[in-house]
Automatic annotation (TrEMBL):
Family of the protein in this entry: Belongs to the tectonic family.
Complex and partners: Part of the tectonic-like complex (also named B9 complex).
InterPro entries found in the cross-reference section: TCTN1-3 (IPR040354), TCTN1-3_dom (IPR011677), TCTN1-3_N (IPR057724)
The keyword Signal appears for this protein: yes
Protein name, per record: TECT1 protein
Lineage: Eukaryota, Metazoa, Chordata, Craniata, Vertebrata
Segments forming domain Tectonic-1-3: 138-298, 307-495
One Pfam family per UniProt: TCTN_DUF1619
Location of the Tectonic-1-3 N-terminal domain: 2-102
Signal peptide: none
A single GO cellular-component term on record: MKS complex
Length: 523
């Protein structure tokens, strides 16, 4: 960019106020009033590039030009990381269909979906820099998982609902897709995308650009009949290929689930695939396939998520607590927010330790009955009821999203604790002087959440959680007398989303018509 100058119009002459003109001398710059082109950059779509900055120091005597070369970062989410696909740097005229090449063009572009990538996809398109010689390669988040021939494919719908096999699986990106594939019963044995071999025949590279390979093993095989009944096979080491049997095509791949095990150094050490195979007839065409991929770090247990990213209705609320001196929240045993679980006999003492998870979006209420005798002491009874209502380890934080990680401190909402009483302040003070006991009888949890993100696909986000303990006064019972009181727990979900602005349509419509030759030369 230091050699580029769009205002240099005169040959071998200095252009007025053109601060990047190489024909201008220091004497010429002293006569300039401004720089007509203050900044020169290359392609603005690049994520990072050099920029040449030109300005005038008018306080100097005589005034002089100031030149700076800086690194400029593109703030846009959609930017070009590297221009390594040479064919995209220039426009090539499309091949016009003729009677001689029409069949070839129809074969290439006439299917439900096609790939615009070159046939010889080269994973190592960048020339190796000298500084990269001693670099230790490892997978990073979102980087396509490489195989010996290209990358691990996770078919998905692209423009329509039809399957495209050009979708790469990204490292640590959990995905679940469904798409439709056209299958011919007579030719099902020749269609690669419905065969188990298509999904396990290419070994995965343990780290990018390495010779160490990880084979994909078959973890399980489930066979689905025409009526939808599924049966798990005992032996998963047998490769079952599609074949025609009595006008049926059996061993068709209906679903694939990959599970990748990796180390904290970004190295893949194990890969497994679970299959769902089925049979189809001519009436079942086309077929729907489902694909899924998940990741687990070695020597760790997978943490169950309740959404990605927003909470899903019916899944548990994730919670945890922060130990003293620990920088971020730590999840409890089940990583869930729980309440008292009701029992059939409604006995509180028998229900101790019985908890049920709070499910997002479900208002819940539970309770039991406590039989109190005159022999019970106030302090132990109060502690027993608190343990009954809140559990042995009540969490301090709640995850704002269903996939919040412990290290993301801002993604955790602290639980606010409140206390209230069924009696007025004057009654409570009077009962205290009379030797009465204040015991907790109810726990009410209010979860406030909001719709976050786009109106088209809003994500549920928790913004506030309040736990309110309600107490009541228990007067001293005469000897030999008993009293039964109800103990209740409840959960209420409140949607705090702001309503749409007046006059704004939440579901806009587009009334447009394509040009008549938009799909030329195809109809």
């Amino acid at each position: 960019v230091a050699k580029l100058c769009v205002c240099d119009l005169l040959v071998a002459q200095c252009d007025v106020n053109c601060c990047c003109d190489p024909d201008c001398s220091a004497a010429d710059f002293s006569l300039f009033t401004t720089c007509s082109v203050p900044i020169v950059t290359g392609d603005s779509r690049l994520c990072s590039q050099k920029a040449a900055i030109y300005s005038l120091d008018v306080e100097a005597n005589p005034p002089e030009r100031i030149f700076k070369l800086i690194d400029q970062v593109n703030p846009s989410v959609f930017c070009i990381h590297a221009t390594n696909y040479k064919q995209a740097l220039s426009f090539s005229s499309p091949e016009m269909p003729t009677s001689e090449n029409f069949d070839q063009l129809l074969k290439q572009f006439g299917s439900a979906s096609f790939s615009a990538e070159p046939d010889n996809w080269n994973m190592n398109t960048d020339a190796q820099n000298p500084s990269d010689v001693n670099e230790t390669y490892r997978y990073k988040y979102g980087v396509p998982i490489q195989t010996v021939d290209a990358f691990l494919r996770l078919p998905s719908p692209v423009v329509s609902s039809w399957c495209s096999d050009a979708n790469p699986a990204g490292f640590l990106v959990n995905q679940a897709t469904k798409c439709i594939r056209s299958v011919s019963v007579e030719k099902c044995g020749n269609i690669q995308a419905v065969s188990m071999l298509f999904y396990i025949n290419s070994s995965i590279l343990a780290v990018p650009k390495s010779s160490q390979m990880v084979n994909i093993t078959v973890q399980s095989i489930v066979v689905q009949s025409l009526n939808g009944m599924r049966t798990s096979l005992n032996g998963s080491d047998v490769l079952r290929l599609p074949m025609i049997l009595d006008e049926l095509c059996i061993n068709i791949v209906l679903g694939v689930s990959y599970h990748i095990t990796y180390t904290d150094a970004g190295e893949i050490i194990e890969a497994a695939a679970s299959f769902v195979l089925g049979a189809i007839n001519k009436e079942a065409l086309p077929i729907q396939q489902s694909f899924e991929i998940s990741f687990t770090q070695v020597h760790t247990k997978p943490v169950p998520l309740s959404g990605n990213p927003g909470y899903v209705v019916g899944l548990p609320i994730r919670a945890g607590f922060r130990p003293q001196g620990y920088p971020f929240p730590n999840t409890n045993k089940y990583s869930q927010l729980t309440i008292l679980q009701s029992t059939s006999n409604q006995d509180c003492l028998a229900a101790q330790g019985a908890r049920t998870p709070i499910l997002f979006g479900y208002n819940m209420i539970s309770g039991c009955k406590l039989r109190i005798t005159a022999a019970m002491k106030c302090q132990p009874l109060t502690q027993t009821l608190l343990d009954l209502l809140k559990g042995q380890s009540f969490p301090e934080y709640v995850a704002s999203f269903g996939n919040s990680q412990a290290q993301d401190v801002l993604d955790w909402v602290p639980i606010t604790h409140l206390h209230t009483s069924e009696q007025s302040d004057n009654e409570r003070i009077y009962n205290t002087f009379q030797g009465s006991c204040q015991i907790p009888v109810a726990l009410e949890i209010e979860v406030k959440w909001t719709k976050y993100g786009s109106l088209v696909n809003p994500q549920a986000r928790i913004v506030n959680v309040t736990a309110t303990i309600t107490t009541t006064t228990l007067k001293q019972l005469p000897s030999g007398r008993e009293r039964t009181i109800p103990i209740t727990s409840s959960v209420v979900f409140t949607d705090t989303s702001s309503p749409a602005e007046p006059g704004y349509k939440a579901w806009p419509t587009i009334n447009a018509k394509l040009p008549f030759d938009f799909f030329f030369p195809f109809v």
